[in-house]
Write a structure and sequence with these properties.
It contains four helices and six strands. It has helices at about 5-15, 25-30, 70-80, 115-130, and strands at about 35-40, 55, 60-65, 85-95, 95-105, 105-110. Mean pLDDT is about 85; it is low at about 135-140.
């Protein structure tokens, strides 16, 4: 599990660059937000049974949500991890394209679908929160 701000920001970039939902990205987002994730073994992944897995919440194991592809899952995860944060999502339409822009705790994210935009903004907000936390400096040696 890597919750460093640099990793969260890199993951937000991947959300913005993604052209469709991705189950491996789902697992990495859950891990970045502090969940223990067990991925489905690669030999069990097929066209009819896509990649996925389970995550631990307390003492229970639950099916890994499609956070990169389902806005309800993304909003649920945001509400669970940061219930006090405000958020918004809007569709920006242009010539032959539609894109989404999300705002979470004053951090923005863009994506081809709303859930990816929301994930990008959420990851940036967590990175900013972690980056602004005071760091413990080692005491000088005598």
């Amino acid at each position: 599990m890597d919750t460093r701000p640099e990793h969260l920001l890199a993951l937000a970039e991947r959300c913005e660059e993604a052209s469709k939902p991705d189950r491996m990205l789902d697992a990495e987002i859950y891990e970045a937000l502090g969940y223990t994730v067990r991925r489905k073994p690669t030999n069990l992944v097929s066209r009819r049974a896509p990649a996925g897995g389970i995550y631990q919440q307390g003492s229970l194991w639950k099916t890994l949500g499609t956070v990169s592809g389902d806005i309800e899952v993304a909003v649920g995860l945001l509400r669970q991890k940061a219930p006090e944060w405000g958020w918004s999502l809007q569709c920006m339409t242009g010539e032959n394209t539609a894109a989404f822009q999300a705002l979470v705790a004053e951090c923005t994210g863009n994506g081809v679908i709303g859930s990816l935009a929301l994930c990008a903004a959420m990851l940036r907000a967590f990175a900013r929160q972690d980056d602004s936390a005071p760091r413990q400096r080692p005491a000088p040696k005598p």
